[in-house]
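Lecture notes, unit on protein representations.

Consider one protein chain, 235 amino acids long.
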Amino acid sequence: MASMKDIKTRIRSVESTQQITRAMELVATSKLRHARERVERSRPFHEVLGEAIAGIQAGLKETPSVYSEVRPVKKTCFVVIGGDRGLAGGYNANLFKLVAQAAEGKECCVLPVGKKALEHFQHRGMSILTEAFSPVEDVTVSDCFSMSRLVAQGFLKGEFDEIHLCYTRFESMLTQTAKTVQMLPMAAPKPREDKRPRSLMLYEPSSEAVYDAIVPEYFAGLIWGAVCESEASEQ
């Protein structure tokens, strides 16, 4: 039977552990709050930017943009935003399962973002476009512009014929959904449901030139939004 001294020592040990875990909980709560606020700030910007892109695309003449060109798919590029750590339940597993389903039967390459994503695809011997963005917590807006230019130039050069962005969307504290979004070729804009007159805007030197210049910038915003969603989901 334990003595009173042993019991008191055990109580002090448990109380010390509680203080440590309480501090860890406060840190985690703070990180989640900041990550969720960043998601909430980024979503309206990307929605408005997407509408602007669709508006310009709808006004293009018969000559389609190079970013809208649909060609036989010989190779696919996946931009996969995973985590840096493995203690996040099914966060990484669900994402990698979705990528595996989308890549089945295709020749593909991967641009991994996050240490776990890089390790996963290296272990499976998949073609890695670059390893420069493995710590997702260090990814900046500037890095997203670099990724956007890298994949856009690869599409223009014919290195791959379609590009998909794979990430985890933050729905709530209890729900996170792995998603894949086709970045290129750009899908045709959806027909307008309302009957409001469309605003008339003139783009110089032309709608096509403006569209081709702004698409890579739009992709950078899309990737940054996906990074924010993924980090909030991981937290």
